[in-house]
């Protein structure tokens, strides 16, 4: 079965450098052949090893591109530029910290991130779309359903991950120790964050997720003052993030 690593890039928040660093980090952590594909509205600056195609038009209005990450639903299109096989989708701000081969053989059907244990003990799963495993084309009905009843479904769910959670009847979830969150696992406690910066993920981690602020680039090319969200505090470059970024072709 073909292995395809997918990412999406639209707008200006995340530039081509994010896609290039992600591509190089995947190459360093995935053995054997694979295709790396970026669905984007602007392929300028992408590494030559990255295949790129336009983001499929699934009938979204301009506001749906700005809130809720609804363009991600296009990943599930029944026909996606002739791609086939098993896909691993990664958000552009994912940090690849360990081997990825197991993401292509773990479970069946749709496999997603479960962020509920990050916040609550013994909570029902909360589906996140930052890291997805799926068979390309198998969930085309999810796109068709959104196209047929777009406004009502977007009003009901608000964000794309809740739509996926509410409409897909069976979802599997990645092992918790494979994925770490900057905010929930690495950010120092209040007060302590004035004395030291974040520590790197442990060796069991495969992918580090960022969501909202701070973004990876804030830890690499930090703005002046506090780069975290008050009352949390972060200042200056984070050595292990700078090393990761430059090792995979990014600039400081």
Just name the CATH architecture of the largest domain: Alpha-Beta Complex
Q: DSSP strand (E) fraction?
A: 15-25%
Summed up, the domain count is 2
Overall, the morphology is globular
CATH superfamily of the largest domain: Spore Coat Polysaccharide Biosynthesis Protein SpsA, Chain A
Output the CATH topology of the largest domain. Spore Coat Polysaccharide Biosynthesis Protein SpsA, Chain A
Total E-strand runs: 10
Mean pLDDT: 96
Key traits:
10 strands; 27% helix; Spore Coat Polysaccharide Biosynthesis Protein SpsA, Chain A; alpha/beta; globular
Describe the structure.
Keywords: Transferase. By secondary structure, the chain is an alpha/beta fold. It has two domains: 3-175, Spore Coat Polysaccharide Biosynthesis Protein SpsA, Chain A; 180-247, no CATH class. It has nine helices and ten strands. The strands form two sheets. It has a seven-stranded mixed beta sheet with strand order 3-2-1-4-7-6-8, sandwiched between helices. A three-stranded mixed beta sheet has the order 5-10-9. Helix 4 (140-148) packs across helix 5 (150-157) and helix 5 (150-157) packs across helix 6 (160-167). The radius of gyration is 18 Å and the shape is globular. The termini are far apart.
Short summary:
This protein is α/β, with parallel strands linked by helices and 252 residues long. The chain is built from nine helices and ten strands. It has two domains: 3-175, Spore Coat Polysaccharide Biosynthesis Protein SpsA, Chain A (Alpha-Beta Complex); 180-247, no CATH class.
């Amino acid at each position: 079965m073909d292995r395809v690593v997918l990412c999406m890039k639209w707008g200006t928040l995340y530039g081509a450098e994010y896609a290039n660093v992600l591509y190089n980090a995947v190459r360093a952590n995935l053995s054997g052949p694979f295709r790396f594909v970026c669905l984007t509205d602007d392929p300028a600056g992408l590494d030559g090893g990255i295949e790129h195609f336009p983001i499929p038009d699934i009938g979204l209005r301009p506001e749906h591109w700005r809130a809720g990450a609804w363009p991600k639903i296009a990943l599930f299109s029944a026909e996606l530029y002739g791609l086939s096989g098993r896909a691993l989708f990664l958000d552009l701000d994912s940090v690849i910290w360990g081997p990825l081969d197991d993401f292509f053989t773990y479970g069946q059907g749709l496999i997603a991130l479960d962020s509920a244990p990050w916040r609550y003990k013994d909570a029902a799963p909360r589906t996140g779309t930052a890291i997805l495993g799926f068979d390309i084309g198998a969930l085309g009905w999810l796109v068709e359903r959104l196209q047929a009843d777009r406004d009502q479904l977007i009003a009901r769910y608000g964000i794309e991950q809740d739509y996926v959670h509410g409409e897909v009847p069976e979802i599997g979830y990645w092992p918790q120790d494979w994925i770490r969150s900057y905010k929930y696992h690495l950010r120092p406690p209040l007060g302590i964050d004035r004395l030291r910066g974040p520590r790197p993920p442990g060796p069991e981690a495969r992918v580090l997720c960022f969501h909202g602020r701070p973004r990876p680039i804030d830890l690499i090319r930090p703005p002046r003052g506090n780069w975290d969200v008050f009352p949390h505090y972060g200042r200056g470059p984070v050595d292990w993030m700078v090393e990761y970024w430059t090792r995979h072709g990014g600039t400081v």
